Amino acid sequence: FFFLEYEDGDLSSWINRERFQGYLNVDGFTLYELGDTGKLVAIAVIDDKNSSVEHTRLKTIIQEVARDYRDHFHRDFQFGHMDGNDYINSLLMDDLTIPTIVVLNTSNQQYFLPDRHIENTEDMVQFINNILDGTAEAQGGDGLLQRIKRIIYDAKSTVVSVFKSSPLLGCFLFGLPLGVISIMCYGICTADTDGGIDEHEAAKKENGDRELTDEGSEEEQEEEKNGKYTELSDGELKQKDIMEKKKD
Question: Could you tell me which SUPFAM superfamilies the record lists for this protein (predicted)?
Fold first, then answer.
């Protein structure tokens, strides 16, 4: 490999990009290491145990592109194949049907899927050119929505894996906290209900006392009025007596 400072930049970055072979058997650790190169990773996701024509054909196509078009794509792309789709599914948060081809951007967690079936090397080259010129649609990413989706997916995957490996342990780990939370919620709801009933009874009692107080005040007012009427009538009688004595 020849280093051209004008095209390749500084020497250490060039060595980091060129330290891998043009075609690799990619696993999780290798994919992590490839993230330091800054290259997009074109992977044929296949089943190595499956010797059908479709699986071997996609692997052959990736190998031919890596070998025959190295001068065109080696600065931007790393090529390889991955056995099985378990790791790639967790990375993409999607269930990929194998065999398939996916291109990963490990720097921002974006990925590209071909919009049509890859039949030959020319189709693969066209797909790579679409990625380079921006016409291919990028999926995934590291935005806020994708981060929330990642948290939900990881939590779901953890729960499923625990129940698959040990159902009894899963029931204990998740059932016990749910039971405690349920009891707490029930206690809170019950306490609020009792408090509401007590407040209602207290308000009802207070209203009754007010009514009794109002009734008492009305009776006192009537008694006062009757007393005034009695006093006035006695005074009138005295005046009548005086007038009668004067006449006499």
Answer: Thioredoxin-like
